Amino acid sequence: TIKQEFKGIDEHDHLVMSTDLDGRLPAVPLGSTVQIKPYKEIHQYSRNFIISSSSCNYTITSPDGDVQTRSYQWRQSIIFQTCPYDEAGWAGATLTTQQLSVDQIFVMFDANNHLIRYAMSNKIGPIHSSLLEQNPCFSGRHGCDINAVCTPGEGVRFSCECTAGFAGDGRYCHDIDECRETPSVCGPNAVCSNQPGSLRCECSAGFVFASDGKTCVEENRPVDHCQRGSHDCDVPQRALCRYTGGSAYICSCLPGFEGNGRGCRDVDECQQQDRCHAEASCSNTQGSFTCQCRPGFHGDGFHCSPTFSEREKTRCEQQRASAVADSDVPFSFRPRPTVGRYVPRCDERGAYEPTQCHQSIGQCWCVDANGQEVPNTRTGPHSSPPLCIDQAVTPAPIGPTPRPDVQPIAPGAYLLFAQSGKIEHVPLDGYIMRREEAKPLLHVPDRVVIAVAYDCVEKMVYWTDITGPAISKASLTGGDIYVCSSSELQSPEGIAIDHVARLLFWTDSTRDTIEVSKLDGSHRRVLFDTDLVNPRPIVTNPAYGRLYWADWNRDGPKIEMSNMDGTGRVVLVKDNLALPNGLTFDYENQQLCWADAGTRKVECMDPHRQLRRNIVEGIQYPFALVSFGRNLYYTDWRREAVVAVDRHLGKETEEFLPQKRSRLYGITTTATQCPQGMTSISQRGKAHLSVISLA
């Protein structure tokens, strides 16, 4: 006989009860396993009592493998007090029957805390009916965040509550950075690493955990002299120290220097032939060189042309002059174009402006560097002008021009963004941009760089340029540029890396294609070439083998998703979009985010449950977007800036204005390590593997 008395909820929100046991329980040998099979209970209840009965079988497996099957009968009576004021609700009520179905029972003894943990999976409802509406917590239609717990209530009511280590309203939960809130939580000689819902303590280099598993003590092991700075390599400006295991390391001179690594001397590139143009002077610098055109010539030093006192008119200027000169007003002090005639717009250098408009008919369109209309970009009256990329090459700067290669940067987290003929980097201190330390990473003269991406495995930066056109890459540790692909490209404007499967994806807005290859450009394949008008941003989710891209087609903008082998193509978002220009994927929270230059919003959604929410509104003209921790960073054409947005606070927190003011294009980050929790290639299924075996 078991008698229980429930005494209500105490001040700790715990249910208080007393239990009296009278009788004997069957003997179970020590170390045995007890398994209770699924069973059903019939509950009959009236105004002040509930009675139930059930019969259940269970098996006992002893440590030596002997199995016994036993059974028991269970009868219970529950007496309670109903509300004395609810007389009408029970008037004439008959005995009601319900069935409790128990599927799983789990019992575990926690020896450390002297607790018995008990859980069961069950469902209650009418005996002969399957039409009872199920609580959303059980059906999965609750909409709680992936990091929240759904608590069922009465009927179909429920509540969402963020789990430990997360904060929010339950519908959306964000990770609590315990390392920032309690910096000393891991103790001395340890590094705190924030994890989703928790934290991880790791001992600093040269230290290991003591026997208590918490305290970090000095370890007697080989030393990484490169990290400690106790090596005998030349200074970091001339040499690189590479740790090779144990206490060994290798010294090597940086590009532009020669020697054994312990002593490096500058290479005078000016002594080598054909470094600069024949009409340019070469100036040697430490580890590099510069070229400058001689007086009477202009150019970047690698290409020099004679300088004339009066510059010849460009094609745009000639076309404009012809339109303006054809005037039917004979006595005007200033020529004016004939009414209804199209007059091209030229910039201060005489090049075609990327957006051209015919005011008389109210239409605008994009043009290339030769003034030719880019297909599928023309807009009609009362529409916003199209989103046009300036395809004119930025003129060479006055003075010496640096050689086109990567200047090595120290390890750490950086923002990389494209600005016409160069890629700049801005160090990140947590989420703060160290603006005073921003500098160019890579100069690519005579190129218009659009999209940038980063491979966290090999520490390589990839980019597209539409003047080549080409897709190229270079190492952040320094060295020359490697061209991955330069054939059958017209306007590659989006690029993405799958660092797990070692794949390269890109969009071509003129060919209207989405393509894939290996990272070196080999085994190229077209994934999609239909139902695309203006594809631009593209991102990957290696954990699930997914590919996402946006098409800013003004007649039907959309964001799509597919598997990486081209199967399973679906439209994720098509409503309330205008110019979805920037796209990024947050690996940690599995969120797809985009910046829209038409709606002037930044939004995010869970692509699995398709829950969509606004992050910030009222932005100006975003081009590209990248996620890093709790922040989103985007480049803005009108502000000519990099803007930081705190997605948890829902507002902009910081702005970086480069020293040279012009349009900014693609943006990415260089994380110190690859995203955690990525599945291996073999776990992603045959669909993803078929992409890797491109033929």
UniProtKB/TrEMBL annotation:
Record-annotated EGF-like domain positions: 133-174, 175-217, 222-265, 266-305
Disulfide bridges in this chain: C357-C364
Pfam family, one: Thyroglobulin_1
Compartment(s): Secreted, Extracellular space, Extracellular matrix
Main location (coarse class): secreted
The UniProt record lists the keyword Disulfide bond: yes
Protein name, as recorded: Nidogen 1b
Species in which this protein is naturally found: Astatotilapia calliptera
Source lineage: Eukaryota, Metazoa, Chordata, Craniata, Vertebrata
